[in-house]
Amino acid sequence: MTAIQSEYSLWWRRPEDEVLATCEELGIGVVPYSPLGKGFLTGTIDANTVFTEGDIRATIPRFADDMRRANHALVEKISAIATQLEATPGQIALAWLLAQKPWIAPIPGTRKLHRLEENIAAADLQLPADSLAEIQDAADTVAIEGGRYPEHLERMTNL
């Protein structure tokens, strides 16, 4: 096996519990999907966001109005760091993943060219140690509210 694909981001860090250590031990890469938390970590979604019909986020507990308000605390902290580094919150979230291990290669999805360019630029963003510590502190102290998927899917996606 060369790599595994697993959700991993600043708002879903469960792979840190066992998966990352096992992958490191076996020389297996990790390809995090949804590294921007289905767009939430970009700072473009807030309590006032209205999802269009068919947008899966409208069915995900983390994206319910009250959960978005609670979870926005993490985005606020990431946004402050982004401002200091002249980056976007999404770039900070991606750069944080890239800084974790050299064998982690996130796959953010996008339909827009300017977002693709923004995401690619995150690879050139070198996070200073103090910024990495701030990001880690934010991820450790902000409790993320709500499930990652609708309840009927949650049991199948807990890796």
TrEMBL record:
Molecular-function GO terms, alphabetical:
oxidoreductase activity
Fetch the InterPro entries from UniProt: Aldo-Keto_reductase, NAD(P)_OxRdtase_dom_sf, NADP_OxRdtase_dom
Transmembrane regions: none
Under the heading Pfam families, the entry gives: Aldo_ket_red
Q: Which UniProt keywords apply?
A: Oxidoreductase
Stretches assigned to the NADP-dependent oxidoreductase domain: 3-138
Q: Which Gene3D superfamilies match?
A: NADP-dependent oxidoreductase domain
Parts forming coiled coils: none
User: What cellular component terms from Gene Ontology apply here?
Assistant: cytoplasm
PANTHER family noted in UniProt: AFLATOXIN B1 ALDEHYDE REDUCTASE, ALDO-KETO REDUCTASE
Q: What is the protein's given name?
A: Aryl-alcohol dehydrogenase-like predicted oxidoreductase
Query: What organism is recorded for this protein?
Result: Actinopolymorpha rutila
